[in-house]
Design brief:
InterPro entries: BP-dependent_transpt_permease, MetI-like, MetI-like_sf. Belongs to the binding-protein-dependent transport system permease family. It is a multi-pass membrane protein. By secondary structure, the chain is mainly alpha-helical. The protein has one domain: Orthogonal Bundle (MetI-like fold), CATH 1.10.3720. It contains twelve helices and no strands. The radius of gyration is 22 Å and the shape is elongated. Helix 3 packs antiparallel against helix 9, helix 4 runs antiparallel to helix 7 and helix 9 runs parallel beside helix 10.
Length: 283
């Protein structure tokens, strides 16, 4: 397998597989908009910038909402919120998955049994219903949403990483390291983590994609933090005015398109990486 620790190898990986290249370009574009969006906003998204339901114009490229707030400013701020929550949940979720998988393998015995039974039980819980129940009774804050979504995103990744770690445990170099008295930290850092690196990336992409979709769904249902603009919140309000004419075109379609492009970009990156890591998938 190509050495992915080298930055040049990662760059060649992106260039070699068109799916990864297209997905990476789209994701980087959205991330840049999320990072510098507040400085690009022509108006404060919480302030009244014009007449209600103005059509797109030079002053308001996407028009205004029902209270006169600029929709382009809302979209740029919502990009930061939706992507920020998704990436935070993806990162925290994959860390929890990795800790559970390595703890199960390195400890073994009773620890392995307890952790895997916990994973099995966690996978049987319908995440959306329980997240709705928790968010309905907990103050809708961004950090609360990140923690709740992370708690329901780690189990599947833990099972996948553990399965790969079990195969690695049979390798001669791992058995030799164990026989020589290698500590769990040494085994994880020098042997398991490098071998699990491809799956860690894929788990991160999958969990980030699910988190962005889940956050948008909760915002669409009105269970997100009202102090932070998001794509789901814009879609929710935009759908209320679909019967009043073509206002929804510049209110609902831009956040829906941004959400769709984000999900597609993460999926394309994942497909490209799977083709690289698993040669039988190249066709």
């Amino acid at each position: 397998m190509q050495n992915l620790k080298n930055p040049r190898s990662r760059l060649k990986l992106v260039r070699r597989y068109p799916a990864s290249r297209i997905g990476t370009f789209l994701l980087l574009l959205l991330l840049i908009l999320g990072l510098i969006g507040p400085w690009l906003c022509p108006y404060n998204p919480w302030e009244y910038a014009g007449r209600p339901l103005e059509p797109p114009s030079l002053a308001h490229p996407l028009g205004t909402n029902d209270v006169g707030q600029d929709l382009l400013s809302e979209l740029l701020y919502g990009t930061r919120t939706s992507l920020g929550i998704g990436l935070a949940v993806g990162l925290l979720g994959v860390v929890l998955s990795l800790l559970a998988a390595l703890g199960s393998i390195l400890k073994g015995g009773r620890w392995d049994f307890v952790i895997m039974r916990l994973v099995d039980a966690w996978l049987t819980i319908p995440p959306l219903l329980l997240v709705l129940l928790i968010v309905a009774f907990v103050p809708p804050r961004v950090w609360v949403l990140i923690m709740v979504l992370s708690l329901f995103s780690w189990a599947g990744g833990a099972r996948i990483l553990r399965s790969q770690a079990l195969e690695m445990q049979k390798e001669p170099y791992v058995e030799a390291a164990v026989a020589l008295g290698g500590s769990p930290v040494h085994l994880a850092r020098r042997h398991f983590l490098p071998g699990l690196y491809p799956l860690i990336i894929l788990c991160f992409l999958v969990q980030t994609r699910r988190a962005i979709l889940m956050e948008s769904s909760l915002a669409f249902l009105g269970l997100a933090d009202p102090q932070h603009k998001s794509w789901g919140m814009m879609i929710q309000y935009g759908m209320k005015f679909m019967a009043l004419g073509d206002y929804w075109l510049w209110w609902l379609l831009p956040p829906a398109l941004a959400l769709g492009l984000t999900l597609v970009s993460l999926a394309l990156i994942g497909f490209g990486l799977e083709s690289r890591f698993e040669p039988t998938l190249k066709s």
